[in-house]
Amino acid sequence: xxxxxxxxxxxxxxxxxxxxxxPVGLRESKKRETRQLISDHATRLFIEQxxxxxxxxxxxxxxxxxxxTVTNYFPRKEDLALDHQGEFIAxxxxxxxxxxxxxSALSALCRAFETAVAAQDPxxxxxxxEFSRMIADSPTLSVCLRGLHDQREEALADAxxxxxxxxxxxxxxxxxxxxxxxxxxxxxxxxxxxxxxxxTNPEIxxxxxxxxxxxFDVLEPALADYAVA
Length: 229
Prior knowledge:
This protein has 229 residues and is mainly alpha-helical. The chain folds into two domains: 24-81, Orthogonal Bundle (Arc Repressor Mutant, subunit A); 85-222, Orthogonal Bundle (Tetracycline Repressor, domain 2). The chain contains ten helices and no strands. The protein is globular, with a radius of gyration of 20 Å. The two termini are 30 Å apart.
């Protein structure tokens, strides 16, 4: 899952002035290309060598950029490995915020997860065996992933508070966010475990679709009518 950070502009090269007449669209396109190039080489090296053993210097050399360029685009090494952090953190909150009229938070979250599984979306855990192994083998990335789950739960609590007219620290809001978050964490881990066990994505999607329905059913008695739009 890298966070889509705005790339920091590098200083003009020695003896040259920045071309301020260059179209913004072209500049942004070049920045995105550089960012993607760095990310692609980093992912390849992490998978080949392991996240902990790979250095920023090796990534910079592979991408043929300066170390400072790497850290300008990716301030933390973890950001090179985990793409779409912002999207992941906001995913549950966005689902609640965009739920249909008359739809509860539980119904919206269940529906969104079913859609993500059918699409085999990496944000819900379909990262592939090599990438999943890279995360599982790295204590740093495992801790980072847990932190992202925590941040996602916090964002969900904020969305639920707004949806119900309460505060994020209200005990009902906090409990609901924790329960929703726990189901999503469990299903994310289930997808990872099945991936590492050698199951194909279509097989995993079939298994998890059925298991997700049962997992969300556990929440039905308490949260079926919670945060109805």
